C-alpha cells in the first residue's frame, strides 16, 4: 500500500509513465511561457518607475506568472495520471486564459507607454 | 434497417451531412479524442506562439526605450510591435482551436499564414530599428 502511494504510476498498465516525455515537454513549454509573462511584466513594472497605480499591470502579470508556474506543475501531474490510465488528457482551459492574459498584457504595455511617455 | 444510430455524433442530430460551421459546437463535443500526443503537440505549438507574442511585446517596449531617433518614429515602431504581439496572442488561440477541431475530426490541419506574416513584420521592424540606429551613428 505504501509503495502504491509513493509510486502511483507503477500500478497502471505498462507503458504508463509519460512515454516519450510528451507531458514533460508540454509542462516545460508552460513554464517557459510563464517566464515570458513574468519577463514582460517585470519590464512593465520597470516602466512604472515606482508609481503604484501605474505598477498594477506589472504586479498583476508577475502574480499571474507565479500562479501559472504552479498550475503548470499541477497540470503536468494530471496529464501523466490521466494518460497513464488510458484516458484523454484534461481539457486545456488554461489555453484560453493565457491567450486572453497576453492580450491584456499587450494593451497594458501600450497604455503604459502612452502614460509614462518614455 | 437504418433506424436510430446510437453513436456520439448523432446526439447532435441536426445535420451530420453539413460539416460547415464547425465553430458552433463546443470543441469537446466535436469528433473524438485524438491521440493525446497530438493534443499536447498542438498545445505546445500554441504556447510557442504565445511566447513569440510576448517577445514581440518586450521588443516593442525595448524599441521605445532604447532605439535612438525621433520620438514619434520610436513610439510608432514600438506600438506596432506591441500591437502585433497582442494580435498574435489572440490569433494563436483561434489557431489552436482550429487545429484541435481538425484533429478531433481527423481532417487536415488548416493552413496558417502566421509564420510568414510574423517573419515579414519582424524583418521590417528589425530593418527600421537598424536604419534608426545607423542614422543616429552617422549624425553624431
Structural overview:
- The complex is a heterodimer of chains A (118) and B (140).
- With 118 residues, chain A is mainly alpha-helical.
- Chain A has helices at residues 2-6, 22-48, 52-84, 93-116.
- Chain A has one domain.
- Chain A is built from four helices and no strands.
- Chain A is elongated, with a radius of gyration of 19 Å.
- The termini of chain A are far apart.
- Chain B has one domain.
- Chain B is built from three helices and no strands.
- In chain B, helix 1 (36-66) runs antiparallel to helix 2 (71-105) and helix 2 (71-105) runs antiparallel to helix 3.
- Chain B is elongated, with a radius of gyration of 22 Å.
- Classes of the chains: A mainly alpha (118), B mainly alpha (140).
Give keywords.
A: 118 residues, mainly alpha, 4 helices, B: 140 residues, 66% helix, disordered N terminus
Low-confidence residue ranges of chain A: none
How many domains make up the coordinates of chain B? 1
- Along the chain, the helix and strand elements of chain A come as HHHH
User: In percent, how helical is the residue content of chain B?
Assistant: 55-70%
Radius of gyration of chain A: 19 Å
Tell me which protein chains meet in the greatest interface and how many residues each side has: A-B, 36 and 36 residues
Estimate the strand proportion of chain B. Answer: under 5%
GO cellular component, one term (chain B): plasma membrane
Domain DUF202 (chain B): 37-102
Protein name (chain B): DUF202 domain-containing protein
Pfam families (chain B): DUF202
Describe the SSE topology:
The complex is a heterodimer of chains A (118) and B (140).
Chain A lengths: L1 H5 L15 H27 L3 H33 L8 H24 L2
Chain B lengths: L35 H31 L4 H35 L8 H26 L1
Helix pairs in contact in B: 1-2, 2-3
Amino acid at each position: 500500500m505504501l509503495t502504491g502511494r509513493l509510486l502511483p504510476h507503477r500500478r497502471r498498465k505498462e507503458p504508463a509513465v509519460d512515454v516519450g516525455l510528451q507531458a514533460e515537454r508540454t509542462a516545460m513549454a508552460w513554464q517557459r511561457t510563464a517566464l515570458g509573462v513574468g519577463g514582460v511584466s517585470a519590464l512593465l513594472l520597470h516602466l512604472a518607475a515606482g508609481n503604484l497605480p501605474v505598477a498594477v499591470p506589472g504586479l498583476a502579470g508577475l502574480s499571474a506568472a507565479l500562479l501559472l508556474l504552479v498550475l503548470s506543475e499541477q497540470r503536468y501531474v494530471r496529464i501523466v495520471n490521466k494518460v497513464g490510465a488510458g484516458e484523454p488528457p484534461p481539457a486545456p482551459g488554461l489555453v484560453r486564459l493565457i491567450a486572453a492574459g497576453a492580450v491584456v498584457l499587450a494593451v497594458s504595455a501600450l497604455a503604459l507607454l502612452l502614460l509614462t511617455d518614455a | 434497417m437504418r433506424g436510430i444510430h446510437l453513436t456520439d455524433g448523432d446526439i447532435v442530430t441536426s445535420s451530420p451531412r453539413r460539416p460547415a460551421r464547425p465553430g458552433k459546437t463546443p470543441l469537446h463535443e466535436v469528433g473524438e479524442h485524438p491521440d493525446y500526443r497530438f493534443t499536447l503537440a498542438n498545445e505546445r505549438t500554441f504556447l510557442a506562439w504565445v511566447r513569440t507574442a510576448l517577445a514581440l511585446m518586450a521588443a516593442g517596449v525595448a524599441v521605445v526605450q532604447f532605439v535612438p531617433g525621433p520620438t514619434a518614429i520610436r513610439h510608432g515602431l514600438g506600438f506596432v510591435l506591441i500591437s502585433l504581439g497582442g494580435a498574435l496572442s489572440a490569433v494563436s488561440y483561434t489557431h489552436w482551436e482550429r487545429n484541435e477541431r481538425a484533429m478531433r475530426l481527423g481532417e487536415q490541419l488548416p493552413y496558417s499564414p502566421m509564420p510568414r506574416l510574423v517573419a515579414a513584420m519582424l524583418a521590417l521592424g528589425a530593418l527600421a530599428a537598424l536604419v534608426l540606429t545607423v542614422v543616429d551613428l552617422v549624425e553624431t
